[in-house]
Every structure is written in C-alpha cells, then in structure tokens.
Amino acid sequence: MTSTVLYRKWRSQTFNEIIGQEHVVQTLRNAISEGRVGHAYLFTGPRGVGKTSMARLLAKAVNCTAPLIERPCGACSSCRAITEGRAVDVIEMDAASHTSVDDARDLIERVQFRPASAKYKVYTIDEVHMLSTAAFNALLKTLEEPPDHALFILATTEIHKIPATILSRCQRFSFTRHTISATAKHLQEIAAKEQLTLEPGVGEAIARAATGSMRDALGILEQLISFANGQIKLEHVHSLLGMTTATEVNLLIDALLQKEIGKALHSVQSIAEQGADLRQFTRDLVERLRSLLLLISTKDKSLLDGSDDDLAQLEKWTNLVHPATLVQWLKLFSALDLQLRTSSYGHLPLELALVEALVAPAPVAAQPVLPAQPVQRAAPPSELKPRLLPQSIAPEPERELSPASEKEEKEDLPAAPAAPHPIAEAKQPETGPASSEKGFSLDHVIAAWPSILDDVKQSDKMLYSVLRDVQPFQIDGLVLTLQAGDFHRKQVEKKLLLLETIVRKRFGLNITLQFQTGSKPLSTKNPVSSKSKPASALTVNCGQDDLVEAARDIFDAKTE
Fold first, then answer.
1. Do residues 130 and 158 touch, judged by C-beta distance below 8 A?
2. Which domains does the chain have, with CATH numbers?
C-alpha cells in the first residue's frame, strides 16, 4: 500500500503555513481583504519554493465562503473540495503536455462557461514557458480581458522565456529560495509530527543539500526515514547523500589560508577515500568562501545564512585573506561542477584547482599600484632632448641656416650642454628620471615594444594596426612619450586606457602615456645636404649596423 509523500502530505493549507514568502503572502492577503483580486497572476522562481501551493491557496481564497479577513479558512466545503482535488471549477494544467495552439483554443472556448458551483473558475497553468509561440498569441486577448468569473494563475521557473506581451498582462510575483535556517526549522516541525528525532545539525545538512528547495528537503527527509530507524543522525545524512562534514570543509579552507598545498591535497585525498560526493563537497566549499567574502566586504552578518558557530569561524578568517584572492578562488572552484561530473580522472580537477589557487600569480587588479604621477604636457619639438631612435626610422632633413640666422636661433634657446655623439649616447646607460624605476628605461621599452603589440593584438586588432606606426620616443619619470602622426595619435587616444593598462601590466608601474606629434620622428643627427655631393654617391650617417652595411655594399653607398 502506497503512502502519501511528505511534500504532498504537509503541503501548506493556509497562508499562515507558507514558509519564507512573506512578501507574496502579505500582498495577496491585502488584495483579498480589500476585494482587489486581479484577473491574471504570474508566479516565478526556482523549483520547490511554493509556487503551486500558493496558486492553490489563492484559488481557495477567491472561492472561500468565510469572511474576507479569514480566507482561506480551509474548513468550508469549497476549501475542502479544492484540497481534496475534486473541485471541477479549479483546473490545473501542465503546459508541457498542452503546448499546442489547439490546446489554447480549447481553453479559450471552455473559459466562457460559468463555474458549476464555485464563484470563480480558476485556471492554473504550471511551467507556462513550455507553451508554443502560437499558443501564447492565442491566449493574449483572453488573458487580457477574461470573463468576470475567470482567474488565470501562471507558474514558471524560466521567466526569461515568457513573452513580454504575456508579462504585461499579469501581476508578477517572484518567489525566493528558502534559507537554511527556515528549512531546518520546518524539517524539525515535520519530524516532530512524524514522531522522528533529528540529531543536531541534521536539518542544516539537509537544507544545504536541498539548495533552497523545500520539496527537495522533504524528499531527502523521506529517504532518511527509510534509511534510519526512528532517530536520524548526522552520519546517516553524510552516508546517504555522500556529503562531508563542515569540519572537513573548514580544514581545507584553513589549508588555503595558510598556503599549505600539501595539507590541502591530503584533505582532498581523505575526502575521496571516504567515497564522498566531490561535487557536493565543492559546492559546500564555494558556499563557505562566498559567506566569507560577504562578511569581509560588508561586515553585515544578516546577509549570512548559518549557525552561530559558523559565524564565529568566519570571523576568525576575515583578517587572513584579501577579497581579491577570494574572488579568484570562487571563480576557480565554482567552475568545477561540470568538470567533476564529466572528468575521467576522479578528483584531479579539484586538485589542480587547489594548486592553481595557491601557486598561480594574483590577478592584476589585486597588485599594488604606485600613486599616479601628475601628467606633464608634451614639450614642443624644439625643446625635446634628441634621443637615438631605431634605425629603421628615416631621419628628417635639416634646413640650412645662414650664419646670422643660426646665431639668432642659438640666442633664443636656453643654454644647454652639448649633446653627445649619437653612437656614444646609445652605448651609455640611462640616467636621471628615465632610469629611476627599475626595469623602466627607453631601451627596455623599445625592447619590450613588440611583445606589448602582441598583447594589444589579442585585445584589439584595430588598435594593433595603428600602433605599428607608433614608436616610443622619450621617458621622463613614469611618463612615456610616444611618437606618432596626427591621425595615429587621434586613433590611439580613443583607446588610451587599454594601451596604458597593458603597458602598466608589462612593467608593473603606474605609467602615463603622452604623444609627440609629427609626420616623421625627430632624428639625433641630420644628413648632409645632397646638393654638396655628387649624384652618383649616396651619403648617409646611419651609425654602425649590419643591415646598413649590407645595404651600403649593394648600392655602392659611401659614408662621410
């Protein structure tokens, strides 16, 4: 002989028995007491949170014969008929098996007939997102203006699949997941009615496994009733569900906080040898780390769902880890569920994630950033100190000056020491502000520029194509000057933040970028005028370079 399952046997029969959906209960109670019941409602939320139970209570309330403030009473003939499932005017449909437009047309035809005995004819359509587009369209007009005796209640777990035209015609109520404390309390009450004894911690363990679904929690409790004999212990829950204790989760988190890889891997090995469900263990680990992140970030214990012992343990950990590190760990471990389910290598994905969490470098956002230096305006080209640029850039011809004009120009310029020979300057190490930061000089930037361009190419190919014609020019402290034409400068400035981020990541410094504009880069030494030499010989001062020497031999060029 079959018995009624617990979630049906102890289904809420009045608004007072509803668990955890106070906002929905209060709104519907006020609407009923004031006689302002709508014609269409949409209940949305995860599985097992009371959507169907609330729909039945609303159907009872609109047809109940008790005073408005007491509805639903659960004792009148109408309430009893709905509870026992024999009310012909309360129709419950499963949209998954009535998904076609013909089913919708049949419903539209039948809704026009008045109720047989009750005041309202109530249609509850469960999993309404399974209806076809044609069925939704057929229901639109009826759902917007149903007969006075009709009430529609739609329920779904996937609200994003409901057309906007349907949403606009319904009063929407969002149901939330049940908290661990509320679920554990409800399980204790049902266990007492079933003459069962739950060991301390059993209710919380079942609630965590149910992940907010009261129906799942009652299903687990029913399994435990068959597994145990009168008294349900915590070890029964762990054995039946393949769960681990909170102590084992805490031990693994301690190993993570102390950066002890060996201890963490031993903990995983011990859990695997017990035959525990590693997916459930990983979920418990993620939930624990999430609670720690919330406590560190908000200092608000009301956001946490756990016992006093759990809160005390979390408070001990708050000063041992940075929120950025917790974010990295949560991303790693929350992505393991699918890998652990499909992997052929047992608990290897969890072990790799633990090693990566402790060995991999910290995320860029968590790295300390030096205080930003004030951005300096780019000096005019005449005031910039010439530097030796890569020899692939062609030098700019120097305009010829008469002795008088050359003297006037020298008087206008401030006195400065004579510039060294370009070859000698290239061989000298960087001094002054350009080399004040370790690993950040013009030579380092020029050497790293190709790899910087590769990083840019992975993020933005258009910016990469523009930067191929841009060259590092000068360094002053943490200000890097780039040489670019007007067109290239404007294109790079649109995405300057991306380029600065990549450069800062490359050198680990808070570097600021600015531009030296011009059609051609400045040269450290200008070529001799071609008018003073025979046309048969090309005279260049290009420095000592193997490629230049090869080109000189091919074209029979001469140097002076």
1. no
2. 6-174 (3.40.50.300), 180-241 (1.10.8.60), 246-366 (1.20.272.10), 381-397+421-517 (3.30.300.180)
